[in-house]
Amino acid sequence: MIEAVGLTKRYGAKTAVHNLSFQVRPGAVTGFLGPNGSGKSTTMRMILGLDQPTAGHVTIDGHPFRNLPNAPRKVGALLDAKAVHGGRSARMHLLSLAQLGGIPARRVDEVLGVVGLQDVARRRSKGFSLGMGQRLGIAAALLGDPQVLLFDEPVNGLDPEGILWVRNLMKQLAAEGRTVFVSSHLMSEMALTADHLIVIGRGQLMADMSVKDFISANSADFARVRTPETEPESREKLTAALVEAGGQVLAEPDGGLRVTGLPLPRISDLAHGADVRLWELSPHQASLEEAYMRMTQGAVDYRSTADQVAALAPPPPGHGYGHPGAGAPQGWAPPQGNPGNPYPVLPGEQPNPYAQPQAAAPRPPQAAPQPPAAAPAPASAPADLTKRDSEDAR
Amino acid sequence: MTTPQPQAAHPAAPQTAPQAPPHAAPGYWPGTAPAGGPAGPVGYVSPIPVRKATLMDAVSAEWTKIRSVRSTIWTLSVMVAIIVGIGLLIAAGVDASGSKMTGSTALAGGFFSVMLGMICVLTLGVLTISSEYGTGMIRTTLTACPDRVRVLTAKAIVFFALTFAITLVSTALVAMFDVAMLEDQAEFAASGGEWLKVTVGTSLFVGLLGIISLAVGTLLRHSAGAITVMLGLVLAPLVVAMFMYTESLSSVRKALFEYSIPMLLSVFYGASGESSATSLSGWDPLWVIAIAAAVALGGAYASLLKRDA
Lengths: 394, 309
Known about the structure:
Chain A: InterPro entries: AAA+_ATPase (IPR003593), ABC_transporter-like_ATP-bd (IPR003439), P-loop_NTPase (IPR027417). The complex is a heterodimer. Chain A is an alpha/beta fold. Chain A folds into 2 domains: 2-216, Rossmann fold (3-Layer(aba) Sandwich); 220-284, CATH 3.30.70.600. Chain A contains 11 helices and 13 strands. Chain A has a 6-stranded mixed beta sheet with strand order 5-6-7-3-8-9, sandwiched between helices. In chain A, strands 11-12-10-13 form a 4-stranded antiparallel beta sheet, with helices on one face. In chain A, strands 2-1-4 form a 3-stranded antiparallel beta sheet, covered by helices on one side. The radius of gyration of chain A is 25 Å and the shape is elongated. Chains A and B meet through helix 2, strand 5, helix 3, helix 4 and helix 6 of A and helix 1, helix 3 and helix 4 of B.
């Protein structure tokens, strides 16, 4: 068990981690999430006694890491896949670490087999791909067969097969009763791997709860309601009835309504009462990704601005960018006519700056990567690998 | 590890309950037998017997590290080539010239080649630790062994032993050639004590200089910076002393000259002779360099313990 109490780290004027307290329990995969620069790696380094906290302390099974008896047999860590001497072979790298920790040398060949590097064990790690480097780092973490495992961004640079392997490995290690603490900025990955989440932003704790609770606590679940397109007046009628009943209604670009604040049966009853037929009445549960985006909205250090390159181009003939609707997220009907704002703003939410219609420059259709359509529910889509391909490049 | 207590913050952590490895399946870890019986509150117990790691483990790990990198082998080969090769060339040259070696023994011919070969030790000593900082390997090392004193001590032992052994073999070879070829030209015959000074003494001196390099590498953590500092440390005092003409600085000049690394080394070879201005003689240079190495290593320990890795 890892226990952090009031952990704080300052570098000069910059506070990397501020008053962080959490516990990581054995027998579960705990995801450690946060945007880039939020202090994940700093926290990991403090857990491992590499960096001294400015205030607070962190212990592993009750001891600070540097006072642990037999630390290499208790804790294994992957901090950085590139943290190896490139001139040394994979086998020699692991052998030196095994010797340093008093671990039998035959264990080196065992872990090389576990991570699938036995064929390149004698090659110098300089020539390794990022994925092979990650596997070597995981091998080093497993060397002491430890009870506590820390992985900093373990799936970076891995191919889909490798990602699946890491995911299963984490789950298996946790199922054996070990403490598994995995940092990532890939929400979708954590949705499939982790049982429990610790979310930080700008070095501060934002959430410490199970994946399920995290989603329901941080996502505004809403109902999608559609009235017959042939009867626009019924839509207004229903909107009026719903607002009167205390719901919040937002028009969606495809002609549907996004209703919050009312349970589904109530919406149905109100529609019935207003004598409006419904073409669709569906619950929408936000994905972990959405919940995370919503939560960390204010805590992102490195935010990109919209690429204004289009403003430099001569006025495009006709409608500008080639294939309209090609980039629209799945489940969306392409906006018809003048769509207005396709990304409505929920009450109490900051308007998405990228989603504002821009009069001057034609906007690439994918400028706002906020998938409002039902993304795969967590833990239900282990085959959802294609999507991650583009995301794991750091 | 304590028994996890369900808390309000963790309502749905279904697997929190401690469990003996349910499927520490035979075959998952090769050579793993399932741990016998429930293991109390501890979540997972490794079947590999736990043994406390010692300094000897760290020494063997450092030995593995140093021999498994090609640049080490290359640098040390170059060092041997310089000491032996240039030593032989000088011996052959002096032998051919037939000139008299006044005020010294035949062993004095070995001084210059050791002086040049020493540069390799500076580089390698720095790289032994700074390459770990450069790659980030130091974090992996310190995770595998949180005892930082042990890590640096192991590095120091391994590097000192390695440079000592290699310098000893090289200088002994050169000394043998020198005595065989130049004995007739030298003014004094080489005594046993002088043999010991140019072989063991020189090797200890070079090894301790390697320790200083290692310490500077630990303090600066940057390969190029640390190597530059070491080269400056070895060469600068002599160069600076050469340009101190002023009378008022003469004492500083003398000290810089006497305690510069090349002059210290030359004492072992008696090249400066009893008649020269230096006040150091016999084994004195070893004590000077030993004190310097102790101070540098002490600083390195303090820095390693205090600073974030």
